[in-house]
Amino acid sequence: ARLLARRHAALLLCTHRPVLPTVLGSIAEALGADATEPDWDPRLRPGGCLVIHRRVEPDGTLGFHSIERHEIFAD
Questions:
Q1: Which residues neighbour 11 within 8 Å (Cβ) at sequence distance 6 or greater?
Q2: Which of 11, 28, 40, 71 would bridge 48 by S-S if both were Cys, CB 3.0 to 4.6 A apart?
Q3: Is the pLDDT of residue 17 over 80?
Q4: Is residue 75's pLDDT more than 70?
Q5: Strands (E), 22-61
Q6: Handedness of CA 9, 66, 39, 29 (dihedral sign)
Q7: pLDDT number for residue 16
Q8: For the segment 22-69, what is each residue's pLDDT rounded down to a tens digit?
Q9: Residue 24: strand pairing partners
């Protein structure tokens, strides 16, 4: 919550599987997003990542913009 409160700062949060569902749920709640959407699924293959884009509303509140899933390709 403290990291998200930095409204005009770029953020990077690195976490791993045991706590990823809790972290994603907290971020979704703080941004008003629906964490039940498929893109919010915390099950990632090793090396995969999520990029969450937030927006700052004119009144200063935070909102959800989009989420990207990046998975490692198997060769």
A1: 3, 4
A2: 71
A3: yes
A4: no
A5: 49-56
A6: positive
A7: 84
A8: 999 999 999 999 999 999 999 988 889 999 999 988 898 889 999 999
A9: none
| Distance in angstroms (rounded) separating the CA atoms of residues 67 and 75 | 25
Q: What phi, psi does 10 have (nearest 5°)? A: -75, 145
Question: In this structure, which long-range contacts are made by residues 27-35, counting pairs with CB atoms below 8 Å and at least 24 apart in sequence?
Answer: 27/52, 28/64, 30/1, 30/4, 30/62, 31/4, 31/62, 31/63, 31/64, 32/63, 32/64, 33/64, 33/67
Instruction: Give CA–CA dist 50/5, Å, rounded.
Output: 19
- Closest residue by Cα to residue 29 from 67, 62, 66: 62
Do 56 and 64 touch, CB atoms closer than 8 A?
no
Would you say 62 and 53 are in contact if contact means Cβ atoms under 8 Å apart? no
Nearest to 50 by CA among 59, 58, 41: 41
